Amino acid sequence: MRDENLSSIVGVPFVSQAVHPVYGTSVSQRLYAEEPLRPLNPDYHSVLRKRLRQNPRALQYLHAEGFDHETISYFGLGLSTPYVKRKNEQEQADALVYPVILRDGRFGNKYGYYNIPGVTKNPAARSGWMSGDARTYYALVRDGPKRVFVCQDVKDLWHL
């Protein structure tokens, strides 16, 4: 359950470098110069959310981590569809999927992934991953002063 007295919180998970290795700009410069994302495809997103609702082991994991149905819905959590990686011909499936939340509170068309031990098939990383550049993730969007919460893991934001 989220605290209604909090002002907007901007989550910046997993920032490990002060300077971007390719662009040479600081992380803070890159975060505010992000390319706009396309709107989320609601049909595809509903498939991901349905996959999570139909997987009792994944839901059990989330509930054990302290996430109720309201939090799961608020953050648009789902499970990834099966995908065969060209690089190694391994199928990946059933990673916890979360869409990036934009500054205006809408879901953007970019997903982060999180390994659910015993559920995710051939995870790309031990905990979480996302393709491309790091993105700003807005956990709570409200008018007023903004607070930045830098965390190691996106799940830390879901607990607020």
Could you walk me through the main structural features you see in this protein, from its secondary elements to its overall organization?
This protein has about 160 residues and is α+β, with helices and mostly antiparallel strands. The chain has a single domain, classed as DNA primase DNAg catalytic core, N-terminal domain (Alpha-Beta Complex). Helices cover about 25% and strands about 25% of the residues. The chain is built from five helices and nine strands; from the N terminus they run βααααββββββββα. It has helices spanning about 25-30, 40-55, 55-65, 70-75, 155-160, and strands spanning about 10-15, 80, 85, 90, 95-100, 105-115, 130, 135-140, 145-150. Strands 2-5-6-7 form a four-stranded antiparallel sheet. A three-stranded mixed sheet has the order 8-1-9. It has a two-stranded antiparallel ribbon with strand order 3-4. A hairpin with a 6-residue loop joins β3 (about 85) and β4 (about 90). It is globular. The model is unreliable at about 1-35 (pLDDT under 50).
Order of secondary-structure elements: EHHHHEEEEEEEEH
Uncertain spans: 1-33
Q: Quick one: biggest sheet?
A: 4 strands, antiparallel
User: What percent of the residues sit in helical stretches (DSSP H or I)?
Assistant: 10-25%
Straight-line distance between termini: 7 Å
Q: What integer value in Å does the Rg equal?
A: 16 Å
CATH level 1 class label: Alpha Beta
Strand content: 15-25%
